[in-house]
Design the sequence.
């Protein structure tokens, strides 16, 4: 079984709809991240959480919100989806290792979201 | 925001060829350089984490070097195989474990 799972894997929605993407992990990691990937661009950080009570904005947080319901769950919401939020979304986790700079991130399989 | 650049954007090689590509990053305030391998329809997976100038890491036919003074890392694949086809991403931390990724090099190995 995958250590980091994302649901749904694919979603097509309409402009203005509220969408929630969910991420669950069985790795026991404290740190969780949401990224989006667009063609020709690298992975860009949307939000991250270092523990259940900690939520931080990333590079491109406008139009998104998150909820860390438990150590194992981190969900991403688009309150009112717009077409330029069409992208591949990845969840990732990392453990609190010796140095945060060298922590490996473990990625989920991605959610492909299309906003019409 | 740090600028992490990768070149080339895409690369097509024949099976058996050796190849290499580059990740450039700002050399000031360097902490670490990560390489990830991302196969289509799969999750990105970590290849290497490098921290020291002159560091060299190897995993099978894939190896990487690091030059922190001039701000670049090379990834080498010896004797490329079709299963090496993937996008190779590099990333460096901006603060803590927040990573800034390059746009990746998409490698296609033709049989």
Sequence:
């Amino acid at each position: 079984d995958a250590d980091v799972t994302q649901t749904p894997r694919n979603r097509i929605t309409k402009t203005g709809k509220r969408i929630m993407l969910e991420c669950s992990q069985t790795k026991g990691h404290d740190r969780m991240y949401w990224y989006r990937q667009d063609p020709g661009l690298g992975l860009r950080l949307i939000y991250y959480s270092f523990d259940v009570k900690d939520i931080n904005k990333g590079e491109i947080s406008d139009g998104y919100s998150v909820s860390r319901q438990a150590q194992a769950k981190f969900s991403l919401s688009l309150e009112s989806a717009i077409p330029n939020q069409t992208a591949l979304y990845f969840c990732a986790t990392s453990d609190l290792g010796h140095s945060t700079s060298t922590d490996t991130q473990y990625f989920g399989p991605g959610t492909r979201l299309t906003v019409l | 925001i740090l600028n992490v650049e990768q070149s080339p954007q895409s690369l097509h090689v024949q099976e058996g060829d050796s190849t290499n590509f580059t990740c450039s990053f700002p050399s000031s305030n360097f902490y670490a350089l990560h390489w990830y391998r991302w196969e289509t329809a799969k999750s990105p997976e970590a290849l290497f984490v490098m921290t020291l100038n002159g560091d060299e890491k190897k995993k099978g036919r894939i190896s990487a070097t690091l030059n922190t003074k001039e701000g670049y890392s090379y990834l080498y694949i010896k004797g490329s195989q079709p299963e090496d086809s993937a996008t190779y991403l590099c990333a460096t931390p901006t603060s803590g474990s927040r990573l800034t990724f390059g746009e990746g090099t998409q490698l296609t190995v033709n049989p």
Remarks:
- Chain A touches chain B at residues 4, 31, 35, 40-45, 48, 50, 58-59, 90, 94, 99-110 (CB under 8 Å).
